[in-house]
Amino acid sequence: MTGPTPLSVPLSGGAALVLDGGLSNQLADQGCDLSDPLWSARLLADDPARIEAAHAAYVRAGARVLITASYQATYEGFARRGVGGKEASALLRSSVTLARRAAAGTPGVRVAASVGPYGAMLADGSEYRGRYGMTVRELERFHRPRIETLAEAEPDVLALETVPDADEAEAMLRAVEGVGVPVWLSFTIEGERTRAGQPLAEAFAMAAGRDDVVAVGVNCCAPADADHAVEVAAATTGKPVVVYPNSGEGWDAAERRWYGGSAFDPARVGRWRSAGARLIGGCCRVGPDEIARIAAVLAGDG
């Protein structure tokens, strides 16, 4: 693949595209140390080959959309490490380049440039709470510079992901206006509400009627919570739904560790697709083996 192609999200016929899984867990399995506030974004500077290898593992597993290592990559986060604005811009753009390289030779693989929430930059677990005490305008000013930089790298889509709060979603949607790249909007949720407590229908509704939003849905949540969310997203917006939950294990933000067992079951994939999901994959702790099983389910169901 030599350049970007439009992200064509299937609207009918039940077809779906397979997303990748968690980048951080794959990097950890490759022996990478992610005990850093920049998390996987640190490797954009320190060991980019590991990121490319992680992407490639998901391509081999059947993923046809790769999400870049820019989730926690921000100008503010890089500045705390002594990285200047020019170098930070180059690192952000390189996240798209690395995914493109991993996809080379495999037709039809698209690249989604990850735009994580403000709380991801804080690296204190607040992306699972939202409500940062900031205005929508302040959040828009935070997000706009890196969105513009990522758009310059010509990804197929911008993934506005793990958004905990409808206010931040509004800010992010304002920040992408005019950049010329389609987006998907994906909330992190608990039960039938956003992490900040807003009803899902209210949160999803802000994407309805926007031509630049090609899909809306959820990620970084429990697999069981995704079941209802897919139905609500489809009914509220009429758009294709994106869904990529975690393994179902719990995350202790203070200890920075996972606990409990996995509840990720690819058998849910058929139900998600029937309810309107057209971009389906996994998030934290969902690896290539699970993505291969998703791909097999989608291929087997036609």
Automatic annotation (TrEMBL):
Q: Which cofactor does it need?
A: Zn(2+)
Start and end residues of each Hcy-binding domain? 5-298
- The lineage's top-level taxon is Bacteria
Q: Which UniProt keywords apply?
A: Metal-binding, Methyltransferase, Transferase, Zinc
Q: What is its EC number?
A: 2.1.1.10
Xref: SUPFAM superfamilies: Homocysteine S-methyltransferase
Identify the residues that bind Zn(2+): 220, 283-284
**An example Gene Ontology biological process:** methylation
GO molecular function terms attached to this record: methyltransferase activity
Concerning InterPro entries, the annotation shows: BHMT-like, HCY_dom, HCY_dom_sf, Hcy_S-methyltransferase
- PROSITE patterns noted in UniProt: HCY
Family matches, as Pfam families: S-methyl_trans
Instruction: Give yes or no: UniProt keyword Transferase.
Output: yes
Tagged with keyword Cell inner membrane: no
Q: What is this protein called?
A: Homocysteine S-methyltransferase
